[in-house]
Amino acid sequence: MSHWIIAPVILPALLAPVIGFVMRHDISMARIASLTGAALVVAIATGLALTAAGGETLVYRLGDWPAPFGIVLVLDRLSAMMVLLTSLLALIVLAHAVATGWDARGQHFHALFQFQIMGLVGAFLTGDIFNLFVFFEILLIASYGLMIHGGGQARLRAGLQYVVINLAGSTLFLFALGVLYAATGTLNIADLARVMEGIEPDDASLVRVAAMLLMVVFAVKAALFPVQFWLPGAYANAPAPVAALFAIMTKVGAYAIIRVHTLVFGPGAGATADIASTWLFPAALVTIAIGAFGVLGARRLMPMVAFSVVGSMGALLLAVSAFTPTALAAAFYYLVHSTFAAAALFLVADLVLTRRGDERLLALPPTVQNGLFAALFFAAAIAMAGMPPLSGFLGKLLVLDALRAPGQIGWAWSAILIGSLLTILGFARAGSTLFWKSTAVDTEATTTTAATPLQLAPAMVALAMLAGLTAFAGPLTAQFQHTADQLFDRGGYVGAVLGASPPEPTTDAATVPASSEEN
Amino acid sequence: MELVIATSIGALTAGGVYLILRLRAFPVILGLALLSYAVNLFLFASGRLAVNMPPVLDKYGDASYTDPLPQALVLTAIVISFGMTAVLVMVALGAFVESGDDRINTEEDAPEGDDEPTEAPR
After folding, report:
1. A110 part of a folded domain
2. Does the distance separating the beta carbons of B87 and A141 come in below 8 Å?
């Protein structure tokens, strides 16, 4: 059974070269292989999520090396949830890309897509922080290719900026890892958590530097103020299905903050306890404001959706910054919601923009199926803005409910509530311009092809996920509460990874960490 | 030894940071290359500096050895930064061929008719 943990990493890794080399001239074969692969990853991820739901932390040792020396993959409730979310989103987005023909506008879409899935799943599963860096690079290098898929001047420019900012981020990540290794002598997350409890005062300042550097790196990925500026340009110029897939990329940053800053630098870690929340809270507040004003001020549809993603990351990280089990449970619900909501918005925006031919928010002659597109946009927008009846409302309610400490309530509540109001205003204005005022334009409607049911289905499935998230909110929040509780059970995680591993570390191996620290 | 390593990491980082703040693609690529050299040296030094030591324990448990793990980390980092630089050069070349200049800022925030780009209003 335990070998299944690595299956969602191996399967796309094997499939991608096959698609890239063998099927590069046959788009239909590549489509079948890619869709089958994504569906298989969903099946495996479902199995893993059901296994992890029992509450056990499963460890997969690569090459069967015992934990601090070898690389481990760790499956707990949080990583299983993220893998399942990734695989579902990937399947929806892939179906949209195939149905609308986006995948045929450039080369190697499917191979890059599989590598992207591999990097994402690996980043969520790994239990080693250097391995996290490697999986970050895999998902980034695939995303560079996807970002400039289809070409075009604006897209290549935006892609160049995206590559540069992420390379700078990767360099910072390596600096942080160097500092961390110099201070602690290990890079295994569980081992780091163990070492951090007894860190000496001399090393504590170094470790604090590493913690803040890691925070900045993950903030770049999560588009947190002051390093959020790359996101609107990149997402707005990326191909729409790729932008929809990138909805999970910001969550990788949020996941890394949650994982590292609860397990390693979290409460109880002595020197670095609560170092993150001091900075995360104000940064998240500003991020919400930037997102809200961006939505209000955007003159084109795609940047508007991109800014709403920035705003949702702000709300998500505001919940994370409390670092309590209740707040994290709320954050998990909002994380799943905002991923599907952002994807749905990008997919609907793609359907609309393909038929309008003009990205600006102007009153143009109505396109075919104006009513249908209006309804889809309306549903996705109210989900994103956080209005009832969809899950955005419940998510924001849970976040607000969790942030009731005296120092938080004023700032957090006003930021989220005013931010939501501005987002609603922005979306309402955009929607009425796009779909309603358009009907008053007298000029002859241009003939565009109607969207086939197959092209509409992925966006509808993404919206259905939101509906499901709303309908089953009770059981799901209970499950997310268990997830958060398990995350705060540091002893359980460390014990599962380091202790009770069947092949006992030999005495030879046991002397290595001690001497490498002294050396 | 420590002084040489520390000053070279510092100089490489300073040069790299200065160069990636330019608005042309070419200096930015050079700057990222310099930064990756700096970080490779830094990672190498994170296992403590030891001269003329083997990266393995000898069988009598003598503790005089240099830490092999940073060397493995550096190898990984070198391979990754090498690949990333290649990708970056390809993307930058694509952007240059498409638009005819190698400015790194996008059209909407580029100042009108500026040949030597200064800070873009944003």
Report:
1. yes
2. yes
